Amino acid sequence: MLRSAQLKGILPAIPTPVHADDTIHTDAARALLRYLLGQGIDGVVPLGGTGEYGALSRAERVRMAELTAQEVEGRDVPVIAGVLDPGYHDAIAAGRDFAAAGVDGLLVLTPYYTNPTQAGIRDYFLRYADESPVPILIYEIPYRTRIAIAPEVLHELSRHENIIGMKACNTDMWHFLRTVAGVDESFAVLSGEDSLFPLHVAAGARGGIVVTASLLPTAWQRIFTLASEGKTAEAIALHRSLIPLMNLAFAETNPGPMKSVMDLIGVDAPAMLAPLVQAAPALSADLRTELKKQLAIFEVR
Q: 124, 167, 259, 292: which is the annotated catalytic residue?
């Protein structure tokens, strides 16, 4: 059973390689996972927003969960699958399917569209945790869901034995500081923001679910090591060197720009799922130039 102590370091949020017919490109997906495992990642998160969860069919989501679990089997690398359904029954059904496919944990998104109260959010996660066959992490990303979770609610949820952590994507640092200050010691707060990662680690995050770590895991591991050792200024300086890459990677909706250049790491599957489209050629060219430079700097093979 996945424990909160295993939630640390760099866990890339990975894109879902697909064919033109919207089915999983299994060869490319396995190539991506092998690349990341070879770079020593601490965990892997398929089927989040970067994984185009909402655009995949239910069957393909399960295939991706199963493929990821198979590729990682036998390693001390937890697989935490995203669950991004807005309604409880679909969300718990997806979680059970992913658990049966072999994942270790679930990253469960705040319920959205219905505009729930804080009491409703609390009850939703408590019910989900009671019924989930594997441990869960809370996924708070208010700039996508328009719903933030009050720090006091997160404090309460952190004490449930089956809620072992969270992906923190709230860009309000005061909210982050108040959250970390009151969660249970057993609860792992993970940064979900590439742009704020070293600050989150300095403030108490145990690691991060990082999008651009799918391209440059070694760089992010170095940033994490520096930040976790208290070398915050050095971590920020290294992080600053990645700002051009991050600006390009997020200049259009993720993961379009990243998918367009992943052939540089041996993953040639640029197709996107509707309603997203492939990155603009000029943007892709600029990102390709920047990624080549960074791969050379960090001696990624």
A: 167
